[in-house]
Each structure stands twice: as structure tokens, then as C-alpha cells.
Design a protein that fits this description.
Radius of gyration: 35 Å
Structural class: alpha/beta
Helix content: 25-40%
CATH superfamily of one domain: Glutaredoxin
Number of helices: 5
Shape: globular
CATH class of one domain: Alpha Beta
Strand content: 15-25%
CATH architecture of one domain: 3-Layer(aba) Sandwich
Largest sheet: 5 strands, mixed
Strand order of the largest sheet: 5-4-3-6-7
Protein name: Thioredoxin domain-containing protein
Number of strands: 7
Length: about 220
Amino acid sequence: MALFGSSSPPETFPEVRATDLDGKELTLPADLPAPLALVIVLFQDDLDPLADQWARLGDEIAAQHAGQMAVVETPVVGRGMKLFGSLATMGIRGQVDDDAEHARTLPIYVDKKPFRKTLKLSKEADVYPFLVERATGAILWAGEGAIDMHEVQSLEAAVSAAISRLPASPLPEAEPPSTDTTPSMAPRDTPGGLADPAGDAPDAAPPEASGDDVKG
């Protein structure tokens, strides 16, 4: 479904404060869990099943680019609800079905109207996925509502293009060569072919003749 019609999409995702379901405070997009993230914005609880469909699509695409892409769901909660602290978070946590959804759910507490205006969202009764670059906050792709094949293909293309522009991961540094120049000492061989444990010890003296061997 077309999101912006004839208008241009927003260029950057606004900086917002989020709190994960374990109570850790984050700043988005700087604290997104990967260089690219499919950020799924929703305003109403009854839209959670549709948000989960987008999340599954995002996970399938992310699996092709290990470590380069993540998926987060950002339920938008009115700033006033922040006053209720953990109670608001507990309410959202109670709607989470599994560990994966728990990890990717990052409620954000903002004034809804300015937030919607920044992202050019005309209504709250829909789900809005955005492909966001963590380093710059740039919005590289945007969708809306139910998933259709055109959006699947355009999202896959946007992810591939974005990953091709990401800087390569640095290679691990090679260990420096050893500076020890002391020559190794090989054991000396005795005439019998065995190593002489005494090293340079002098040869043993021949045994003295016994008295029985001396002629009178």
C-alpha cells in the first residue's frame, strides 16, 4: 500500500527515547541493534498482529544478512503514560507472546501529534514499517498497512542496496613476528646415537687395571 502518495517520504527518523521491556532506556535510532533496522511503528494495540507479520518478513530478510539487519517494534505511547513508569511497560509486556517479540519490542514515549507530523503519518490506525540506517538515522524505505508483493520486493531491494554500501567489517590484526633471535640448542649425540644429558661434560676415565692383571 502506498504510504506517502504524491508527497515525498521523510528523510530521517526522529531521535526518540525508548525503553525496552526489561526497563533499559535507549535512544533511537542511535541504539538500534544493527547497522540497518526495520523499525515497525504502531499506535494501537489491536494492530499488533499486523506488526508481527511485518516483523516475520523482516526476520526472513535479516536472516540473509547475518549481523547487518535487525527488526524492532516500537509501540508509540503517549508521553503522559511515562508517568506510570513500569506499569505502562508491564501492560505492553503482557501482550508479548514469545522471547523474540520481547527482545524486539521498544515502546517509545512521545507526544504523538508532533511525532506523526515528523514522519508524515496522517493517521494512527495503521502500521508503518521504516528501514532505518543506524549511523545516520536515514529512512531508506517506508511502507504502510498490509503487506503486498510489491512492498516485499521493494524492501528486499532496499536492504540489499543499503548493505552493499555499508563499510566492510575490519579484519582481525595479524600477530607480529617473534623478535626472539636466540638460536635453539640441539642436544649433542653420543657415539651410540643417544643424546648426552651432560652436554659438554668430559669423557669418563678408563677403569684402572686390577692387581690380578699385573704379572710378577
